[in-house]
Amino acid sequence: MNPQAKLIFTISLLLGTTITISSNHWIMAWAGLEINTLAILPMISKSHHPRAIEAATKYILTQATASALVLFSSMTNAWYTGQWDITQLTHPTSCLILTSAIAMKLGLVPFHFWFPEVLQGSPLITGLLLSTMMKFPPITLLFMTSPSLNSTLLTCMALLSTALGGWMGLNQTQIRKILAFSSISHLGWMAIIITYNPKLTLLNFYLYALMTATVFLALNSIKASKLSTLMTTWTKIPPLSATLLLALLSLAGLPPLTGFLPKWLIIQELTKQNMAVAATTISLLSLLSLFFYLRLAYCATITLPPHTINHTKQWHTNKPISTLIAILTTTSTMLLPISPLLSSIM
User: Is 322 left (phi over 0), alpha (psi -120 to 50) or beta?
Assistant: First the structure.
């Protein structure tokens, strides 16, 4: 892609995200979401492969539908209440439509159908943007409207997302699809707590974005997109494979790594809200996703003969990228000692 075009699209992504998260008016929030959608489309389809074109088509159709629902929800609320303020969403029908629209933008069950296919047809760096940056504006809208949302609906969607994200990821061999179902499963943890403690949702999202960025950048450096490719990386780049192992185990939520921190705090908060059954259910359902995380970690450290003869050349990796991955891994795996402080703040 032309560097100037890539710069324009990157600036547009930052602009759209900034407009959405800083706006108080529904029209401005909708405009920011549309700018984000239009900016990410060329990045998805830049390879001109039929699968990339298909992914871009699915993405624009889904996001256009969700944006139309956001606009319809805000107009319905303004019709009945006379308010265009995001925090003044009080009409029950508007709240229901908005919850469905944001769930479609995020990829929550039952609106998850587009996300694995789009991520599979996108490059790894674009997949990183789809899994992290593109989810930040919708989560911000959920954060601002959290007092008005239907907690029962969100709890049902969260449990279904955690169950389906773990179940559908079990038999996948494509790494991008596994990470897509991982994202759906993590979104379930964020959605179940948004109406009770929105700060925990943001904490969970920040840590998830940190760990996912580590995994995607490591996979991009290794050039691995399938489990069979990942199995040969230990003989080629052992330090990066060890880095990927730690990041995957942290993403799985195994103590004492950082990924365990948000799950621990969410279970604690759900118990305080007399939702011990929901806390137990989502904890047990997360064991499904733990299986494919452990399988990925095993594939990242298994030693198989590489397919190429000149595999020793791959030891020379891009130093800035390797340094960034090391920083992200250290940050995403060593934050657990500050959990008592975060627990007292929450």
Answer: alpha
